[in-house]
Amino acid sequence: xxxxxxxxxxxxxxxxxxxxxxxxxxxxxxxxxxxxxxxxxxxxxxxxxxxxxxxxxxxxxxxxxxxxxxxxxxxxxxxxxxxxxxxxxxxxxxxxxxxxxxxxxxxxxxxxxxxxxxxxxxxxxxxxxxxxxxxxxxxxxxxxxxxxxxxxxxxxxxxxxxxxxxxxxxxxxxxxxxxxxxxxxxxxxxxxxxxxxxxxxxxxxxxxxxxxxxxx
Amino acid sequence: xxxxxxxxxxxxxxxxxxxxxxxxxxxxxxxxxxxxxxxxxxxxxxxxxxxxxxxxxxxxxxxxxxxxxxxxxxxxxxxxxxxxxxxxxxxxxxxxxxxxxxxxxxxxxxxxxxxxxxxxxxxxxxxxxxxxxxxxxxxxxxxxxxxxxxxxxxxxxxxxxxxxxxxxxxxxxxxxxxxxxxxxxxxxxxxxxxxxxxxxxxxxxxxxxxxxxxxxxxxxxxxxxxxxxxxxxxxxxxxxxxxxxxxxxxxxxxxxxxxxxxxxxxxxxxxxxxxxxxxxxxxxxxxxxxxxxxxxxxxxxxxxxxxxxxxxxxxxxxxxxxxxxxxxxxxxxxxxxxxxxxxxxxxxxxxxxxxxxxxxxxxxxxxxxxxxx
Lengths: 216, 373
Fold this sequence. Notes:
The complex is a heterodimer of chains A (216) and B (373).
Chain A: H1 2-10, H2 22-70, H3 72-82, H4 86-89, H5 92-101, H6 118-126, H7 145-156, H8 162-193, H9 197-215
Helix pairs in contact in A: 3-5, 5-6, 6-8
Chain B: H1 2-14, E1 20-23, E2 34-37, E3 44-48, H2 55-64, E4 67-70, E5 81-86, H3 93-99, E6 104-106, E7 125-126, E8 134-136, H4 141-167, H5 180-185, H6 191-250, H7 252-264, H8 267-277, H9 283-286, H10 291-305, H11 314-320, H12 330-336, H13 341-369
Parallel strand pairs in B: 3-4, 3-5, 5-6, 6-7
Antiparallel strand pairs in B: 1-2, 1-8
Helix pairs in contact in B: 1-4, 6-10, 8-11, 8-13, 11-13, 12-13
């Protein structure tokens, strides 16, 4: 095994003309490049682990602890309050939901909305799961590489990723807001188109009743 | 929980009018297998795979005498579901149904991971299931009944433990034990000195328990983080590194750069990408686990690193490659928000159509926002 490893390390240094020809040469070529491939992959792995992981781990720990301290109840109240107006419904509400409950449980906050707004809220919230990873990776730690993949390239150029991260985050907010409104309109159109206006008017009444019942 | 156990027990005693189906894990799959059975209340097999009812869901439905239902068109109350059939190799959908206590059959070789990993247990989850892994159970109802009865009796004895321990002179349950402040209060000190002592003790006790809860919360957060790192982040890094290694070492990266950079480094190319990924028949296929967006993101990053793609196109690229985000998850996401079946019926097409408008729009906004980067 050791001999193999030593050979593999020495091989790339040799000029190609010196390798023996014939069948053995083919195998030598294969061996060199076989191990070379994985050495390259290994160095990529070390870059990712040393570059991203240490900060990520302490940040994740901090944010998980913070969300525990703040408590779901307090955020739930804030989210319910946000759900009343269209401006906050597709901006503050999905962001709070993601920061508190993370992907995928964030969508469960849709239960505080009337039926006709639920698809738009889902669309808005799910569209923020990648912009949110720029500064709050814990909110969607399973899908980091949409952002980290691009950011890694920028880092390798020797540039800071912060300006890009900030813009991704802010443009993300604008996009989820527009997306929420467009989807809300399209949902209303689909309700009319499929002749479900009555059904949804009924849902709205049920929602109002449930809310009145909660207050009483 | 107890309700379901009793149901299972009753079924076992009344006879075998409904068939039991055993689903085992396929090659590369996870879990010892599930025993499924329909009853008066649980009558639906939910297929949440997209593209109609999955053959595996249909087979389970046929064998148990239940009805197969397409989860993308309709929602079913959780307590009517015999099992959910999913196709998820990612991290989100895989845990949603186990979290609700619904037995979940994954047709992909998924394994516990992601934020809901702790809900994905051997009793509720099996993966890499194909048609051959679904069989009419050879073990008759009796065996299943015994298991259920065992679990039920376990439950009762578990429920009885605190009382037993309390009367048996063992350690009393936590709330019956005198608290630290109560112990402090019984100390035989009187007068003003005692009062002061009492106050000081209370402060210390309060402070102590605050520190205790703080430390415990931080520790739990650390544990959650390491768990996630080991189960989700590191495996993904390993796979991304291998992919990057191959692409960089073989020179595919440069070759891709030559093909991609004309498309990715002009706004119209990016607009075209964003529109294509948002097409309603493609977006639900491209979505799962954001696997494709993550791989494309990583590859685009490698293009930026070798200079094939200018940095100012990074932002519109991020939106262009991700127009499909969450399109695979619409019915499940809506179900998490307790949406009614009618809402899913109008909401799913609304979201998919909305993407065709908002996905290119997002690229335009991002492109406009990249000036001066």
